[in-house]
Amino acid sequence: MAVYPYPYHPRPGRTPRKCAGCHRTFWLPPSLLKRWKSSYCRKRCWPRFKRRCERCAKVFYVGPAVNRRGFGRYCSHQCRLLPRIPCPVCQRKFVPFRRSNQKSPRKRFCSWLCSQKWMVPRWPTGKRNHAWKGGRWINKRGYIVLRAPHTKGGVIFEHRAIM
């Protein structure tokens, strides 16, 4: 199947045009004369403009229409849409998770580990916490559970501790 415009031998009724990129003559059929506004025979002949991405500093090339409108500031869709912010703990730049509320650790920190490092000094555990209830609660099965930091899991059933 042939692709317009035809860069090969002309047929009757075609109009010659000179390509601005490769200086070859290409022939347009009458049906494309009104629509074909370009002065290039194919996309390969378009001028390319060198740009540097504002986000990642990668070098990329844009076409004449993008250059004329002043677009082409980013190398990819990901660089354009997603802002990179520094993690308050390790200062590493990361892309925040978009579908979470502002207070979520996924939006403020680069990883779960950094969120825990940030929270530990601010939220004291054990008896120093304002919501401390004595380290004793009832689990789903009705057993009374005690907090025991010296044990393997950090908790122990009350009936085991008494015995």
Helical content band? 10-25%
Multimer state? single chain
Mean pLDDT: 81
Quote the beta fraction: 15-25%
**Outline type:** rod-shaped
Number of strands: 9
What's the helix count?
5
- The secondary-structure element order is EEEEHHEEHHEEEH
Cα distance spanning the termini? 88 Å
What labels describe this entry?
5 helices, 163 residues, 9 strands, two-stranded antiparallel ribbon, three-stranded antiparallel beta sheet, 4 domains, alpha+beta
Brief sketch in words of this structure:
By secondary structure, this protein is α+β, with helices and mostly antiparallel strands.
Polypeptide structure, described:
- With 163 residues, the chain is of the alpha+beta class.
- The chain folds into 4 domains: 1-45, no CATH class; 49-81, no CATH class; 85-122, no CATH class; 134-162, no CATH class.
- Helices cover 19% and strands 18% of the residues.
- It has 5 helices and 9 strands; from the N terminus they run E-E-E-E-H-H-E-E-H-H-E-E-E-H.
- It has helices spanning 64-69, 77-81, 105-108, 112-122, 158-162, and strands spanning 15-18, 25-28, 49-52, 59-62, 85-86, 93-94, 136-138, 144-147, 155-157.
- The protein has a 3-stranded antiparallel sheet. The protein has a two-stranded antiparallel sheet with strand order 1-2. Strands 3-4 form a two-stranded antiparallel ribbon.
- The longest helix has 11 residues, at 112-122.
- The radius of gyration is 33 Å and the shape is rod-shaped.
